[in-house]
Amino acid sequence: xxxxxxxxxxxxxxxxxxxxxxxxxxxxxxxxxxxxxxxxxxxxxxxxxxxxxxxxxxxxxxxxxxxxxxxxxxxxxxxxxxxxxxxxxxxxxxxxxxxxxxxxxxxxxxxxxxxxxxxxxxxxxxxxxxxxxxxxxxxxxxxxxxxxxxxxxxxxxxxxxxxxxxxxxxxxxxxxxxxxxxxxxxxxxxxxxxxxxxxxxxxxxxxxxxxxxxxxxxxxxxxxxxxxxxxxxxxxxxxxxxxxxxxxxxxxxxxxxxxxxxxxxxxxxxxxxxxxxxxxxxxxxxxxxxxxxxxxxxxxxxxxxxxxxxxxxxxxxxxxxxxxxxxxxxxxxxxxxxxxxxxxxxxxxxxxxxxxxxxxxxxxxxxxxxxxxxxxxxxxxxxxxxxxxxxxxxxxxxxxxxxxxxxxxxxxxxxxxxxxxxxxxxxxxxxxxxxxxxxxxxxxxxxxxxxxxxxxxxxxxxxxxxxxxxxxxxxxxxxxxxxxxxxxxxxxxxxxxxxxxxxxxxxxxxxxxxxxxxxxxxxxxxxxxxxxxxxxxxxxxxxxxxxxxxxxxxxxxxxxxxxxxxxxxxxxxxxxxxxxxxxxxxxxxxxxxxxxxxxxxxxxxxxxxxxxxxxxxxxxxxxxxxxxxxxxxxxxxxxxxxxxxxxxxxxxxxxxxxxxxxxxxxxxxxxxxxxxxxxxxxxxxxxxxxxxxxxxxxxxxxxxxxxxxxxxxxxxxxxxxxxxxxxxxxxxxxxxxxxxxxxxxxxxxxxxxxxxxxxxxxxxxxxxxxxxxxx
Length: 775
Known about the structure:
The chain is mainly beta. It is built from six helices and 44 strands. Strands 37, 39, 42, 43 and 44 form a five-stranded mixed β-sheet that branches. Strands 4-10-9-6 form a four-stranded mixed β-sheet, with no helix packed on it. A four-stranded mixed β-sheet has the order 12-19-18-15, with no helix packed on it. Helix 4 packs antiparallel against helix 5. The protein is extended. One of its GO terms (molecular function) is calcium ion binding.
């Protein structure tokens, strides 16, 4: 064997101790023309084989050879292999110990296999050498190309970045063995994207390669990176990926107005808050780098400018009312600048721009203007008609200064309580006033030159013209066992007047009720009064109701007073003063039902009415449906029941048996109740009778009856059962009915039944046998 192949397989010697050793070659000296080699035993322990992956040969791949010192090569030793893949992936020649791989192996699937081998005596089955474990390692070959972890990569870098600025790092992996050779050593290179970007061969880091790359010139770049194994040498496998790089915007462009002067024309009647016009500056940057702020540089308060967030436009709005007569043109100086600045590139001053804005005011024929926005006037309610309560004043703001006329908008004074002098604007009373009916009058005065309105609020001042009255209390209760001086009710008063100092009411008992009074009134000095008993003990039997007149006077001028009656009812009370019973009205009130109980009773009545109506409707519906159901049953069954029971064979008067034998004797006067009488269809009945005379055979008879029913429109439906009890005429056996046995005077001879054949044998045995027994 060639010693140069000793690195690919193993020659070993199994010693009696079971130790597997490898046989190798060693140098023994030098000769003149070469080396002299001598075989010797090595002293190191072997434990592994090596095998190349992806074997492409047609035969099994040779791994190595196992050999025992006890093998005399006489065929008595058998080698046994166990472990991972033994018998399937790896096989051993049990006689020679040669080890082979039966199929192609892939290191990326499994890198090593652990097996055991032993030598066995074929004759005795005894182990000559104990099991010895070894490993088969799969040597890697370059059969996997590098693969990137992403495809594509998305990356970004700021515009104007310095050369060498980090962009992104790409990574490729190789499934080959990185510890064996260069199969897994990957080198990166750039195939597309130069001269803008570069890649580091060892790390895969992509960096910028050109300075001052401007996003406004080009924003997106596509770079193709290649990863090649075998350290990039010839014959290595490679893979590629795409890197999409976007330049991020920075604020390197200032905002600029497209024009230097803007002019807007607005009418002087424009309302404050309205938009005058919009300015639009341009900025080549995007996002927040293009956000702008507009400012009016002039010292004024007539206009203001703001930035519209989406469009970044400057919106000029009016803050005060314009006046053509005072100023016809307003000139503004507007400045625009970026909100976010980048001091790395430019100074703040270079990122500003200004423009001139001219606002031209147009003259409008304006209505008269009142000197005040609203007027408040006061008048006493007892003022006489024609009294002037105040005046309004308006002027024409236009340069012409036209004369102003005044009038009241009658929609705000439908009752025409007030009027106005058209020339001077004096407001006067035209109808009497009543403060208690309406304390405030809100009217609108119109000044005409074009039309303008001013609200006028007329307050009617109060005069003391109303008397006070009870404040929603007119009834009280007193117990029969009440004591003198006991308070039974506290009363208060109300007055429609509204005096400036507030109300002050005085209470007293009417003079006419002071004599023999049962109750008295005590003023509490706080606009209330207490009704107090004068004596002890009150009887409901003697008197159940007392009327107490109370005089109430106000403290204004002139004094107004009124007499109010308090109804006091006598009630029976317990010892603690709790009322138990008053009068008949109290009984009625106590016995009355609450609102909830009345609602419940009403709901019960409604439910009962609904049940009665529903029951009546169902009953009416059932009565309508019954004739239809009976009619359908008649059509389906067509069964007519007569409930007529015959009298047996001896009853010859119940019906005529001859009718069943001969249809010719059917009485024409008897009609079926379920069909139309024959008289309505004489031609059909006549034809059927003629056909029956010509042929009385049973088959012809049934055919005639069938034809008769088919052609009769009054006959029952097809699914009805029609029975024709006709035995036929001319039969050899004649009639077998026992109905005719009544007319027989003696016993009949039934011997002839035996002559009719096997069909009548049973009858012949029955009747013939009895006759023979009697004889």
